[in-house]
Design goal:
Blueprint lengths: L12 E6 L3 H12 L4 E7 L2 H10 L4 E5 L1 E2 L2 E2 H11 L4 E6 L4 H10 L3 E4 L4 H14 L5 H17 L13 H11 L4 H8 L3 H15 L4 H10 L6
Parallel strand pairs: 1-2, 1-3, 3-6, 6-7
Antiparallel strand pairs: 4-5
Helix pairs in contact: 4-6, 6-10, 7-9, 7-10, 8-9, 9-10
Length: about 230
């Protein structure tokens, strides 16, 4: 059994799983059904089958395999997010190259996990996505940082937007976001509540006009805030 955490999503959800390997889907279904807030799990081996489920009831969360025969992960994500904008997508993939991670995060997926992630990592990702909108790992943050470092260095200061003024605490929260820390980890490290962490994160989004945590990472790199 998966150990329960003290903080769980407030309501039950339906999860969908798109992967062409039946054995993998069956194993994932078993894991997901142990989570108390997951009401049901629907699975599909190809996109038309998944869309048929969506026509009946749109799931709250989709676990998406990046590459399947006859389907392109980025195109599938773009199609689903265009038609179902409220859908939260977590990518599960054997591919860990920066290009895959940055492409999928820029499309609007909420997290990117390797397929060899353990049960606790999967659970943490799902709960973070449901509670805060995203789940960042060090691998995701490093990929986003490397993806924008070169353009940032190539731009002259005159070409870059002005830097907003951040409080010392906001700068600390931003640095930890860029490290891929969870809200719970940030709360422990800064000796503040998780609610306060989320308040600082929201203020950062407002000040920088970033759409999400990925945008905050990009902002920090482009303005050299991580160098400090």
């Amino acid at each position: 059994m998966i150990p329960q955490t003290t903080l769980a999503p407030p309501s039950t959800i339906q999860v969908a799983l798109l992967d062409d390997h039946q054995l993998f889907r069956q194993g994932m279904r078993y894991i997901l059904q142990e989570l108390p807030y997951i009401e049901s799990v629907v699975e599909a081996g190809e996109l038309p089958e998944l869309l048929a489920h969506f026509r009946q009831r749109q799931p709250d969360l989709l676990l998406l395999d990046l590459q399947m025969p006859g389907s392109d992960g980025p195109e599938v994500a773009k199609l689903l997010l265009s038609e179902f904008p409220g859908l939260k997508i977590i990518v599960l993939s054997m591919f860990s190259a920066d290009t895959f991670i940055t492409q999928m995060m820029s499309l609007g997926v909420r997290s990117y996990l390797p397929k060899d992630a353990d049960q606790q990592q999967l659970r943490q990702a799902i709960e973070d996505v449901l509670l805060t909108g995203h789940h960042f790992t060090p691998a995701i943050s490093r990929a986003l940082v490397r993806g924008v470092q070169q353009p940032a260095r190539a731009s002259s200061p005159a070409q870059q937007p002005s830097i907003v003024q951040l409080t010392p605490r906001e700068h600390e929260v931003l640095r930890l976001i860029c490290e891929g820390r969870t809200a719970a980890e940030m709360a422990d490290l800064l000796f503040i509540s998780r609610r306060t962490v989320e308040g600082h994160r929201q203020k950062l989004l407002e000040k920088t006009s970033a759409p999400n945590s990925a945008g905050l990472v990009v902002y920090a790199v482009r303005h050299g805030l991580l160098d400090a």
